[in-house]
Design brief:
The structure is a single chain. The protein has 641 residues and is of the alpha+beta class. It folds into three domains: 272 residues, no CATH class; 171 residues, Efflux pump adaptor protein, beta barrel domain (Elongation Factor Tu (Ef-tu), domain 3, Beta Barrel), CATH 2.40.30; 184 residues, Helix Hairpins (Orthogonal Bundle). The protein contains eight helices and 25 strands. The strands form six sheets. The protein has a six-stranded antiparallel barrel with strand order 3-11-15-13-12-16. A hairpin with a 2-residue loop joins strand 18 and strand 19. The relative contact order is 0.16.
Length: 641
């Protein structure tokens, strides 16, 4: 909730003096209201040319001076630095013991003890799981060693098979082949020698037979022996040819094939060994990882038992999380309730806060319409409800990144959190967390400019004007309004220093009913149409643009006025004046229109009645509010003096 205020004097003497002035002004206001009622009854609301009696409270003067533009925001105090303690258990647990809120503890003191019986049961079960995992690791290691031994045996067998194949090949080449060839050649030589011998013997027998010295039978037997020897020689030669052409290549390929197969078997053994070894190694790694996870889980569970006991990490004041911020809101809407023995605590739930109260900040809420005008480094004055007759200087430290909603009570409200660092050494503990605070933030200042009380400014369509005396009545004087606070409005054009202006709404007949002068409107930057009627200005000068906030940051209460000036009135309108209520909810007055142009920065409807023409006397309540506003401004001026 925010509202705009002018900066008041923080001194106690000024407040007491202002209180006396308020009492005096209130009495005068009552008399004025009564006089106004009698006047309205006696005059009957007529339009007589004579002006009713005007008191000093009704009139103000155009003066040259300076004023500040401020906004007021409500919130509470917080420690600038604080330690938040949360439940670090992975499961919900009940509170067995908790330190009393507000206690001052030393480092190492017991703060909270949570129920850890379930955790101890889990630890016992997990220790059994760790032992099983250790046995699995041992078995996997043994399996790996056995596999390594089998791999070595397989490789040796494969290498031996290759060696035997190589020996068999060499034996065949250097032994069997040579032996066979030698034997075959010897057989050929012997058969050829027998053939030569028997052929010679047969020829001799032929000669003897022809000479008659040998019988035919003997000759035939000798020839038969020659034929047998010839056949033997042919067979020996054929055996050698057959061996060289068929047997030798076949035996050679067989021996080479045996050697190649042995070599291939060794490669297969090595490949299979790698697969088996990798599988056993992967099994061991997996088993070890499972063992490590179980050990890690066991250690974590043991740590959880230790975390169930929370001690103070530093000296400080104990504050329950359910007593501040959202924790307090949750308790109010029926959450888990305040912290106490037996209450269940959720994982990561905030339990305690140990604030460092030597340095405090005010965490206030500012409406989103004003957030764009607040910057780090802006000065502020902080008042604390619990510390009367004293205010504290501060500086805007940070503005929230995201807007916060008003919760279930006002979901449409959007506010930003503003942290204001308080320039006060709070070693004595005068300021405490969660104390209600009111911060007055200075948004800007108007220096050495013409100004009038803000209640003197009226609006009709695009025209801003004041009521200045003329004869026995008042006339409407167009003005160009610059920046505005809740008390004063900067006058850029249209008035001179020392002129008098009316500070209240006029009664019927008090305003001279004249049309707007096109020259007077143009002089204050209001455009006119062909008929001389005011229209909204379309052109803006460079100076005008510099005074305007960007459209995305245009706060409520700031609007364009004819001539391009930006009128700033960051204070929300009082209830019943057609502006915003302090809590952000809009409420219209009885007429459904803003009471004054410029008081809330809104533009009245173009069809609003013109004072002096069809204007009606204000209702008693409205008149009373007007007088009270004037009294407040007078009191503020007196306090400044």
């Amino acid at each position: 909730m925010t509202q705009n205020t002018s900066r008041p004097s923080p001194s106690g003497a000024s407040r007491r003096r202002r209180g006396f002035i308020r009492i005096a002004v209130a009495g005068a206001a009552v008399l004025l209201i009564a006089a106004g009622g009698i006047y309205a009854v006696t005059r009957g609301g007529g339009s007589s040319a004579s002006m009713r009696a005007v008191s000093n409270l009704d009139m103000g003067r155009v003066s040259k001076g300076s004023f500040e533009i401020t906004t007021t925001a409500m919130g509470e105090l917080e420690a600038r630095n604080q330690i938040e303690l949360r439940s670090q258990l992975d499961a919900a647990a009940g509170i067995l013991e908790i330190v009393s809120e507000g206690s001052v503890v030393k480092k190492g003191d017991l703060l909270v003890r949570l129920n850890a019986e379930t955790l101890q049961d889990q630890i016992d079960q997990q220790e059994i799981e760790v032992e099983r995992a250790q046995a699995d690791v041992t078995a996997a290691q043994n399996a790996l060693e056995i596999q390594k031994s089998q791999n070595e045996s397989g490789i040796r067998a494969g290498e031996l098979k290759i060696q035997l194949a190589e020996l068999a090949l060499n034996q065949w080449r250097e032994g069997e082949v040579v032996k066979t060839r030698t034997s075959q050649q010897l057989e050929i030589d012997q058969a050829q020698a027998d053939l030569d011998r028997l052929s010679a013997f047969a020829q001799r027998s032929q000669s003897l037979w022809e000479a008659g010295f040998l019988s035919k039978d003997t000759l035939d037997q000798d020839k038969m022996a020659e034929d047998k020897a010839n056949a033997r020689a042919q067979i020996a030669k054929l055996d050698k040819a057959t061996y060289e052409e068929y047997q030798h290549p076949r035996d050679e390929k067989t021996k080479l094939s045996d050697l190649e197969e042995a070599q291939a078997d060794l490669e297969r053994i090595k490949f299979q060994n790698e697969i088996n070894l990798s599988a056993k190694q992967a099994s061991l790694d997996t088993t070890k990882r499972q063992f490590d996870l179980k050990v890690e889980k066991l250690e974590k569970q043991k740590q959880q038992v230790d975390l169930a006991t929370m001690v103070a990490p530093t000296d400080g004041l104990v504050v329950y999380a359910t007593s501040v911020g959202r924790g307090r809101d949750m308790v109010m809407i029926g959450g888990d309730g305040p912290l106490q023995v037996g209450r269940q605590v959720r994982p990561n739930e905030q339990l305690l806060i140990l604030p460092d109260t030597t340095r405090m900040v005010a965490n206030v809420k500012v409406h989103e319409s004003l957030a764009g005008r607040i910057r780090p480094g802006q000065p502020a004055i902080v008042k604390v409800d619990a510390v009367t007759n004293e205010s504290f200087r501060g500086t805007v430290e940070s503005i929230g990144v995201l807007a916060e909603t008003g919760g279930w009570r006002d979901p449409n409200r959007r506010e930003y959190s503003v942290r204001i660092a308080i320039e006060h050494d709070n070693s004595d503990g005068q300021l405490k967390p969660s104390m209600r605070a009111e911060a007055e933030i200075m948004l800007g200042a108007v220096k050495d400019s013409l100004m009038v009380p803000v209640q003197a400014v009226f609006a009709e369509g695009p025209v801003r004007y004041v009521l200045t005396p003329k004869g026995g009545r008042f006339e409407r004087t167009p003005v160009q309004v610059g920046r505005m606070s809740d008390a004063f409005a900067e006058i850029s054009k249209g008035l001179e220093e020392g002129q008098q202006v009316l500070l209240r709404e006029p009664a019927a007949g008090e305003v001279v009913a004249t049309a707007w002068s096109p020259e007077a409107l143009k002089a204050v930057g209001v455009a006119v149409d062909d008929d001389g009627k005011p229209v909204a200005s379309k052109g803006l000068t460079s100076a005008d643009m510099l005074q305007m906030a960007p459209p995305a940051q245009m706060p409520a209460g700031v609007q364009m006025i004819p001539g391009g000036d930006a009128a700033a009135n960051p204070r929300p309108q009082r209830t019943g004046e057609g502006g915003q209520r302090p809590d952000g909810a809009g409420r219209a007055n009885g007429a459904g229109q803003p009471r004054r142009g410029g008081r809330d920065g809104s533009q009245p409807n173009s069809g609003a009645a013109t004072p002096g023409a069809q204007a009606t006397p204000p209702a008693p309540e409205t008149a009373k509010e007007t007088v009270q506003e004037a009294a407040k401004e007078t009191a503020k001026e007196a306090s400044k003096d």
